[in-house]
Amino acid sequence: MEIVMSFVIGFLFMAAVYLMLSKSLLRIIIGTGLLSHGAHLLLLTMGGLDGGAPPVVSPGVTDYADPLPQALILTAIVISFGVTAFFLVLAYRSYQELDTDNMNLMRGTEDHD
Amino acid sequence: MTNLLLFPILLPFFFAMILMLFPKKILAQRILALFALGSTLIASVTLLIKVKTDGIQAITLGSWPAPFGISMVSDMLSILLVLSSTVIAIFVVWYSFSSIGKERESFFYYPGILFMLTGVNGAFTTGDIFNMFVFFEVLLMSSYLLIVLGGEKVQLRESIKYILVNIISSALFVVTVAYLYSVVGTLNMADISVKITQIDQPGIITVIAVLFLLVFGLKGAIFPLFFWLPSSYAAPPIPVLALFGALLTKVGVYAIMRTYTLFFTLDQSFTHELLMILSILTIVAGCIGALAYFDVKKIIIYNIIIAVGVILFGASQMNEAALMGSVFYLIHDILIKGALFMLIGVIIAITGTSDLRKMGGLIKSYPMLGWTYLIAAFGLAGIPPLSGFVGKLLIIQGGFEAENLWGSIFILASSLVVLLSVMRIFIYAFWGEPIEITPLSKRHYRGLFTPALILVGISVLYGVGSEWLVPYMSDAANVMLNPSQYIQAVLGGA
Q1: Is the Cβ–Cβ distance between B56 and B74 less than 8 Å?
Q2: In chain B, which residue's Cα lies nearest the Cα of A43?
């Protein structure tokens, strides 16, 4: 199971890197979404996928899934959610102000903005 | 008071939340922000005295036993850094009163600074690797706000790049923590150190060490990963730049020093060799940049990169002299970079440009500013009675003791380049033909110049009184050299 997940996560990272190297700002933001998705799945996989019960204490169950990675993922999800929301609004603002979403045109030199 | 070590984190956090309630009342914002920072300063000094007399302070939140809860640890290195960050934040806020402008002040500028200080102090104090990630995000989120606040075109453009780089490095941090967790099965830093010693550092731990270097190197701007820093830092207004330049990269440097002295100590011939080579290349890259520009902001920004290289070279030597030198130099660099950015802020305010070629002759109208800048410049380069000297001397001594002759020679040569780059500002801006300037009002000038002057004064005292500071620095170096003290303080008898 971990092998399959590793391949999927690797594919997510590949797609994220490809998108983040493109010119359009929106593609880059989609890339960061895929990147954090991959990172969260990796946390889950690295905690082990050995098929225990959900980590809620219930009578008669001895084998639980590791609760720690789930807590870490929950934290990481809300953080990346906050950052992505900020980034999206920033992209919107800069589209209004700079009139472009092409990263190649957002260069600016010492002489002009 | 076992909770004393949490106060430098909680006080700015608490006051930042209060400040969010009345953003338009600027006078109240200013007074309360200064009050918050003053009380943080008092808490840090108390904590410093306590750490000096009683040894390392550690607490595991919620009374859970040590590896299971989140530990907060304050050893000499972290409390010294917390103290100097708080000092810098006070001066930046004071400087902001007369430079940042009403529009920014009424849009959550001071809460932003206080939240950033929360994140910085938390990252210095935490004893849990995932908690460190969270505090990194706290300080990064506040820095996103501060870098884009005002919404000028250049700020929008550069903050997109800054945020993108930091999102990538944060994702890498999560990935690295995931790998480390799957190998050692714990997140508590002291416990990780014990587990890594038990499994005798197999190859995968060395890979994780390099990944950590990649993550923290992106935050701290080491050689191949510094590309984002110069243009991003040139975008925000001067007080924000002073805050970033003095604090943000130093958090990455601290994290590298902490992980490389606590976790990855068994395969030093690879990891620390790599760190040393990268730090020397960082110095070279910074030197090239510092000489290449005619823009005062860019010159000082590239000096940040040089300083990061010098500190990490000391950290990679792993002997007492070099580590002590690194701590000396780290604190010196926080103080002097804050002071230098404020001083060039005054120069930019007077001349209305940051281009050296359009300045000249300021020494006639502003002699005090000129001589203060000269002292700060000598301090940065490490002229003996001033603050940069002792740190660099110890780092070079440590380099010779570890028989890294060439590395030490690079450090010495870089001092000359640093001196040349900051003296160029002095010569171009203060000597030569006076240019037409519209003089600042006395009150505005005093508001800008006084905090910078006092900060330079503090850095001079830091240099002159270094004899008196040696016991503190050697305590900090000792904990880094003997991680068992740190582990003992967190885990008890383990």
Answers
A1: yes
A2: B178
Q: Check: CB of residue B335 under 8 Å from CB of residue B386.
A: no
pLDDT grade, residue B478 (50/70/90)?
very high
Chain A and chain B share a number of CB contacts under 8 A equal to: 94
Q: Is the separation of the CB atoms in B388 and B382 below 8 Å?
A: yes
- Domain total of chain B: 1
Q: What is d(CA B225, CA B217) in angstroms, rounded to the nearest whole number?
A: 6
Quick check: A68 and B187 CB within 8 A?
Answer: yes
Contact B452, B95 (CB under 8 A): yes
Residues from chain A contacting residue B174 (CB–CB below 8 Å): 36, 39-40, 42-43, 76
Contact A36 B130 (CB under 8 A): no
Which CATH number is associated with domain A1-50+65-101? 1.10.287
- Kindly list the distances between the CA atom of residue B244 and the CA atoms of B235, B300, B342, in Å, as whole numbers in the listed order: 11, 12, 12
Which pLDDT value is given to residue A113?
Answer: 46
Using CA atoms, how far apart are residues B108 and B439, in angstroms rounded to an integer? 31
Q: pTM of the predicted model, to two decimals?
A: 0.95
CB contact under 8 A, A40 and B144: no
Q: Rounded mean pLDDT of chain B?
A: 93
User: Domain limits of chain A?
Assistant: 1-50+65-101
> Is the pLDDT assigned to residue B420 strictly greater than 80?
yes
Mean pLDDT of A100-109: 81
Start-to-end CA distance of chain A, whole Å, equals 51
Q: How far apart are CA B52 and CA B48, in angstroms?
A: 6
Give the integer Cα–Cα distance in Å for B12 and B7. 9
Residue A90: list chain B partners with CB under 8 A.
Answer: 148, 156, 159-160, 163
* B401 close to A (CB below 8 A): no
All residues at 6 or more sequence positions from B192 whose CB lies less than 8 Å from its CB, including other chains? B129, B180, B184, B186, B262, B263
Nearest CB to A43 within list B151, B163, B178: B178
- With contact defined as beta carbons under 8 Å apart, do B57 and B74 qualify? yes
Q: Which domain holds residue B147?
A: 4-491
Percentages (nearest 5) of helix, strand, coil residues in chain A: 65, 5, 30
Nearest Cα residue in chain A from B136:
A79
